[in-house]
Design a protein that fits this description.
Rossmann fold; 8-stranded mixed beta sheet; 19 helices; 4-stranded antiparallel beta sheet; 2 domains
Length: 425
């Protein structure tokens, strides 16, 4: 495919997302099924252009004076991908291009509308209804925080110390351009690719098949490390999902003690089993909800209950930008109900002197501090244990962890450690 056809395809997919409210992965899959002629480079181009458009569609629509899919794509090409007006015009006029540029479009490409007068949600690329909540969370830093959340994300890797050490792992991942990410000795990073470029294929590295490393955002790795010393402990990952943090906890345990993985969705646990085997985890028990009472007998006996709670995913919008446009007030309210329920259920397994780690990949106070505050009001036997982790400075005055792309260069994460003083069956 030539450039014009690729851009035309991206416009088509973005239009389908906006009119039919499809997730971007589904919309790209539907396009791919009809575009059998598209090669891997074509698909990567279209996907990259689409995701950049979703990250910054409001601000680029403002600059172009045109919020349509076409207007946004032109803005991405000119102001993010740095194509010249001549290159854009040439691509537009190609046989399978997106149509010749209008005089107005040529003018906007040369003289975009200034962002000075743009409302904060437009400049920050988020829905209007989130304005009050984001101001509450970030205050004066709201603008820079949201701009950082609209950038491309790097690919972070975690060296699996059950299979190798950080030094040998570093040599293996260097083959795909990974460098130390900082904070944690086992964390490495492949910088975010330039426009239209692809990140190297992680799965192609032989060490990946051997289980030497996992793909995991640095923020997620830090959130797992917040659990503290887990060697020889009884650990329950209450919302294990696909098992990313389960594996990080298992590595920290060094195959000592016992880690139980549970999730409300039995299908997600299937991947945890496969990944655990590849990673060399030998102390893992899967407690599937298909059993009548999967966690029976663990009440009040667990040293560390890790709760990676269901959330809006507002901290991952760099990677999943379509999610911020699909989020609604009703969905946020539903997540809060689920979070309260998960905290209540998970707390029953924490033993006296044990701790519960509450984690979300959300930036919103509604899903973080508010949920913890409500839980503590209902459960005076729990108190906040301030987070202290070497190299981690992003701790709030209440003792909670708050990571953001702007402050920490990671996805957005929140974590709170709650310690139990007594247990009554």
């Amino acid at each position: 495919m030539r450039d014009g056809g690729r851009v035309s395809a991206a416009i088509e997919v973005l239009t389908e997302i906006e009119t039919r409210h499809f997730p971007s992965k589904m919309a790209l899959k539907r396009w791919g099924e009809t575009a059998r002629y598209a090669g891997s480079k074509d698909r990567a181009f279209v996907s990259g252009l689409l995701l950049d458009a979703l990250r910054r569609k409001r601000s680029l629509g403002w600059m172009m004076g045109d919020a349509s899919a076409r207007g946004v794509m032109l803005g991405i090409l000119a102001f993010v991908w740095k194509w010249t007006p001549e290159r854009i015009a040439e691509a537009a006029a190609e046989e399978h291009g997106f149509g010749a540029l209008t005089d107005v479009e040529r003018e906007r490409l040369a003289n975009p509308v200034a962002m000075d007068g743009a409302p904060a949600p437009v400049a920050g690329d988020y829905p209007d209804w989130l304005e009050e909540r984001l101001v509450r969370t970030f205050g004066a830093d709201q603008a820079v925080e949201m701009r950082a959340l609209a950038e491309r994300a790097p690919v972070d890797l975690r060296i699996n110390t059950l299979k190798t050490d950080a030094e040998r792992g570093a040599k293996a991942v260097a083959l795909i351009g990974a460098v130390p990410a900082g904070v944690l000795p086992t964390a490495f990073r492949i910088p975010a690719p330039e426009a239209a470029d692809r990140t190297p294929s992680v799965e192609a590295v032989p060490a990946f098949s051997k289980g030497w490393f996992e793909v995991q955002d640095l923020g997620s790795q830090i959130a797992a490390a917040v659990a503290g010393d887990v060697k020889g402990k009884q650990v329950l990952d209450f919302c294990a999902g696909g098992g990313g943090k389960t594996l990080a906890l298992a590595a920290a345990m060094g195959n000592t003690g016992q880690i139980f993985a549970h999730d409300a969705d039995a299908r997600r646990l299937a991947d945890t089993i496969r990944r655990g085997q590849r990673a060399g985890v030998r102390n893992l028990q899967i407690r599937s909800p298909i059993e009548a009472t999967p966690l029976k007998g663990l009440e009040g006996k667990i040293d560390v209950v890790f709760v990676d709670a269901p959330c809006t995913g507002a901290g991952t919008w760099r990677r999943h930008p379509d999610a911020k446009w699909r989020l609604s007030p009703d969905q946020l309210a539903k997540r809060q109900i689920e979070q309260d329920s998960v905290l209540e259920d998970a707390s029953t397994f924490v033993k006296a002197g044990g701790r519960m780690v509450y984690v979300t990949c959300s930036l919103l106070t509604d899903e973080n501090e508010d949920r913890v505050a409500g839980f503590l009001e209902r459960h005076p036997e729990f108190t906040v244990k301030p987070i202290a982790l070497d190299g981690v400075t992003h701790v709030t005055r209440e003792g909670y962890l708050r990571l953001t792309p702007y402050r920490a260069g990671t996805d957005g994460f929140f974590a709170a450690v709650l310690e139990r003083s007594s247990y009554t069956p």
